Amino acid sequence: MADSTRNLTDSSRLVLQLSHEEATLRRSFQVSIADLMLGLVRWDLTYNGSAIFGLSLSDLQAARTIVESRVRSAGPTGFPSIDVTDQDIGRVVKAAAAEAHRSGHAEAVSPEHLCYGLLTVEESSLQPLLMAILGKDSLEPIRLRILRAFGQP
What we know:
Number of strands: 2
Strand content: under 5%
Mean pLDDT: 77
Strand order of the largest sheet: 1-2
Order of helices and strands: HHEHHEHHH
Distance between the termini: 31 Å
CATH topology: Double Clp-N motif
């Protein structure tokens, strides 16, 4: 994973820090896929004007509640529980780096790239959670916002 994280922007490193904080709020020693998603939501809300997810601070609180209730109701295996150095996070970062390279941003893996990587690698487990948080029946608007962030129509 060291090679994959080398090109992370400071903003992407901040997303990972925020994800760790989300795990800590749940009193977890590991960062889950849900924590990574919440870290991205927090970054988007705080530093990106909610350009990707379009959520407010109250939506973030509601998202935390949804994550917590699903983790509690599903038990310890409700979401893939992974350490930030684990190969699953590595797969997300590698997918993000591949998209950065494909879109001509190989030297800078941004939070938008991380979001793309997360949706690409973990879509099946995250889709119901994201749709519940966003109150939507499709993630297509998120994908379109990410593509616009890459400068694609």
